Amino acid sequence: MGSRVDYIKQCRKQGYSDTYIRNALRQAGHQEPAIDHSFIQAKSMNVRPFIFVILALALVGSLTGILLLQDNTTGYVVQEPDLEVVKAAILEQEVAKINEMDVSVVEKQERIQELTRQIDALFIRIELERQQNMDSSLELINNMLNR
């Protein structure tokens, strides 16, 4: 199996499509379940753009947690984005990218499940950081008011 995985990775590096690689493996006598399993093992989902999106969201989430906007009637009001809406939009966008990939349905489902776990973990961290930033901001404001 390792040689199939290596073959898939090497072919992808050389720019061959997954369809081409699958056909070559079939012609070499490999069975479809073994091919599917090898593609899953060779996961080469491009994580770098995804990590950049995650880091950008973490930064935005952290910064929005400490943004205070002046409201003329009530004083300072904290404006927070709805993280569930943002999370759903990101997930929808990434799922669309996965669905466009030339891979098996099983591999798409596994990638979507992994992506969902990563996004959930990210948003939990964002929420914790936002709460910490909010607590720090309130403490700073209280210290300034008590002077």
Short description:
The protein contains 6 helices and 2 strands. With 147 residues, it is mainly α.
Strand content: 5-15%
Shape: rod-shaped
Oligomer: single chain
Number of helices: 6
Give the averaged pLDDT, no decimals.
Answer: 76
Radius of gyration from CA coordinates: 23 Å
How many discrete structural domains?
A: 2
> Order of strands across the biggest sheet?
1-2
Q: Terminal Cα separation, in Å?
A: 70 Å
> What kind of sheet is the major sheet?
2 strands, antiparallel
Draw up the topology in text.
Blueprint: H1 2-13, H2 18-27, H3 32-41, H4 47-66, E1 68-71, E2 75-78, H5 83-100, H6 105-145
Antiparallel strand pairs: 1-2
Helix pairs in contact: 1-3, 4-6, 5-6
What does this 3D model show about the protein?
The chain is mainly α. The protein folds into two domains: 1-44; 45-147. The chain contains six helices and two strands, in the order ααααββαα. It has a two-stranded antiparallel sheet with strand order 1-2. Helix 1 (2-13) packs across helix 3, helix 4 runs parallel beside helix 6 and helix 5 packs antiparallel against helix 6. The longest helix is centred in the C-terminal third of the chain and has 41 residues, at 105-145. The model is unreliable at 68-73 (pLDDT under 50).
